[in-house]
Amino acid sequence: MTQSSTNNETIHPTLHHFGLTTANLEPMVEWYNKVLGMKPNHESSHPAGAKSPPGLKASWVTNDKANHRIAIMSLPGLKDDP
User: Fold this and answer.
1) How many domains would you assign to the chain?
2) Phi, psi for 34 (deg, rounded to 5)
3) C-alpha 77 chain-centroid distance
4) Among the four residues 16, 35, 43, 73, which has the most C-beta atoms within 10 Å?
5) Which residues does 33 contact at the CB level (< 8 Å), separation at least 6?
6) Is position 20 within any domain?
7) Is residue 81 in a domain?
8) Rounded to two decimals, what is the model's pTM?
9) If 0-12 CB within 10 Å is exposed, 13-18 middle and 19+ buried, where does residue 53 land?
């Protein structure tokens, strides 16, 4: 057992440039906004410089002054995990 867990201290990690994929971009962006206060600072259907397939959508979200903390991408053909 680590010292921090015996002291009941909360660890606050810093997320930066973390990428997620989803079949439901808008609900996922809304969830991160509601739970972590993250708001999109850039959204795109064709990320700059990327040779992306048609239908790819992405949203970069942050809850501070960072250019983004999490990139959320909706990939064509991705299905919900039952």
Assistant:
1) 1
2) -65, -45
3) 19
4) 73
5) 39, 61
6) yes
7) no
8) 0.69
9) exposed
